[in-house]
Amino acid sequence: MECPHCVSLTSKVVDSRLTSDRISIRRRRECLLCSERFTTYESTEEHMLPVLIKKKVGHGSTKTSLKTLLPFISETLKDLSNETKKLAAQVDMHERIQAAGVVSKKKASVQKPAVRKTAALTTTEVVLKIIRRYKKGVGISTLKAKTGFDDKKLSNAVHRAVKQGKIRRVGRGVYIKA
User: Fold this and answer.
1) Is 123-177 in CATH node 1.10.10.10?
2) What is the pLDDT of residues 86-114, one digit of tens each?
């Protein structure tokens, strides 16, 4: 799955459940690169068929001729199969591009030579950068003034950095580089 925040293809599943309609699976994922979380919903083609039939035939019709329904089902399955093949080809192409060191959302055929852009710093990286400047430690109030982040965002970033072992606490609300 592609992370919607940093476009990385590496993520882990944190939680997985059936939805209330029992048709699709809701998965909570965490990006291994930027540690952001996002939700995906997955379902199989067999579960989508009744929805497509209702859309084509109509919700109110109860008497439907089998002769008209079977060709529609056959055509729908062919379309779904073709779409699945196209998606698989796109994923394969994206993996080849990524393996070559070029990551882009554009198609490979119209792609220009890769120009490396510097990625935007995450919240945790910004906090770590500021903490590294202070040898004797830095307080939460200073971090808040330097970054402009709100209390919740700042405390989450500090907590994440402490958990990863990148910083350590030396006093109440005072942190230094580990």
Assistant:
1) yes
2) 887 887 777 777 777 655 444 445 555 65
